[in-house]
Hints:
This protein has seven helices and 39 strands.
Amino acid sequence: MPIQFQMPDNLPFAKIRSTFGLLSAIDPSAKTAYEELTCVGYHPDREELHGVVAVKQAAGYMGDVCSTGSPEFVRFYMSFDGGATWEDKGVASFQAHDLGQAGPTEYAVTLRIDLPEKPCKNEAQNMAKVRAILSWRDLPPPNTPGFSPRWGNRLEVDVQLKPSKPALTPILPPIKIKPLGTVLSDLKPLPLHLPIAAKALVNKPRIADLVAKYGAKVPAHRTVFPEMTMLAKASSGAISNELVKSLGDLKLDPKVIGDAIIATVGDTQFEQLTCVGFDPKTESLVGVIHVKLPNGYSGSLCDLGSKEYVAFWVDWGDGRWNYVGTSFVTAHDISSMPAGGLRYALSQRLDMSGHRNPCGEGANIVRVRAILSWQDAPSTTDPNYPPRWGNRLEGKIEIPPREKTTTGALWRAAGRVALDDIEPPGHANQGYTKTGQHVATIYGGRTYFNAPFGGFILLQGLVPAGARYRFMFRKVGVTSFAPLLSNLIQPTTVYQWVPGTATRLPVTLTCDSQGYYTALNDVDEDILGVWFTGPQEDEGLFELYMQVQSDGLSDTAPDGRRVVAIRIDNSAPTAELVLDGAGSGMCTDTNKGDPVRGKFTASARHFASFGFELLPPIPAGLVGTSNPASIITISSPSASGSPTAATSYPSLPTGGVPTLAGTFELNTSNMQPCGYSLTIIVNNRVNVNSGSYREDREHVGFCVRPKP
């Protein structure tokens, strides 16, 4: 059962924003005056949805960078039947602030999903639509793809999913190595940066096959560009002489092809970089690419396809462009290309060590540049690199004002919740997610409202590879900190990205008897460790901090480093449901039109919601059948301090282990004679296992007989 909390408003929305002399939310044209979702894309191999949001105004976001600011939510939906139905995939968010200067400042959000792979030969099954809804401060309700935000907008795109592929097989026989032919000397000035594989590629269509397939739909110099790229970089004739022969057989002149390649600069008819932004939750730069045509990408979904590279550069404020990394996403020929093309996205981690200013210095806005280049990785030394196919895009991003570290290490999230979204030690609500607002997890798509933590808690952050680090913790009230040794209790398996690929491999995180780990490179979700909480931490308030061995700080005290409070709740909610009448209270009969009555109880230390589910559902179109609540009357609920018939937090009671007990009556007037199951569902709002909830269910059954 979806959990939905309503964010309380301290001020009417229109008043909040009209205070800054800008447009009223009553005017539809004002919906995107402050923020606008400009691009949405998907990375098939990493299974990540991305959105880019332009924050446009200097003020109107409820506080500067030293304040909490206000959340910008993006809820993602996917459709696998052409838009007939939509599946809610979850929410991502970031905090917007009054930056003191007009935008646009480009932010990004990331949501990881998990989809089953479909056979590569079935293009239709590997296509999907994505709908994203941006909403300022107002959490878009779940399972409502038509939601219209008060501020924000909706964007819909087509994406390609990750296909399952047949086994790869070699396609080239061994070739005798010969010196490079002089006929190719004119290509040497071409700046190329794609590394050459030591062996022949697999599942790669032959040039003759591609030329025959594309015909006049794709220029010959693009069709052979990947081979010419390798040719110009090869140190032997192993590939080049084979290629020269292939071009000759196809009546293509290598010199003419080479000249056409050299004359091609900034061609965007096949692909174009449309947005670039920064995701403060994942600390990554994000680019969205529009792939426009059905052919010209070196093979179908069953082939290797071609790489769309994006190199990122940042000007930290001194007027110089600094290279910060290159990422890629793979594109394929799609014969059933949607009319508007496909949107791909990719991300690149941004190391901000030494560039985070204290919030008192104001917003730190820097320039970012991204260069898209098809099949040829852009230069890592030339920020003005001109791609053959692709383009260059610039924007402004905000560098979050967090603590500076001398080691470059930074603990940034617990349980997939950013540390900035957890109330700090000393706060009245310490250890819970931010008071009075929804908090979206990193990657996971869940949102939490004044939530504690339970189960296993992922500890995420960045530590330079090879450095030793550990987490120190204590229960509040205990004098000294001790090493967190969860890894010695349960082995922790994480996934590490293989450099230059979109492949993850499992690796075990191990710590020594003092709790020290050795940092790894490119661990998925930046997992540094896992805290396996249990009954021993139940209903406890703890403090933790991360310690890097090379930072020269004491092992026995925080010494000014960031201490994080975490409230633990490992109790489970409970639900009870009993029917009035004969039998055990679990089953009864009634005649159509006669009510079904019973009693219920619902308890949870940290209530989220409770409600009823009726199966089979009553046919649509009948009066009062939109949901079980419309035909179930709750009466006489009792709980200390709770309002009558409260069903969701924050109206539900808190403190201790509150219990709601009452009676219910179900109206059978519109129910067809049948056997039914009635379920009460009780949820708590604890962040369990770094992105889940706990719930309890109780079922009863009854039969509705024809009216005598």
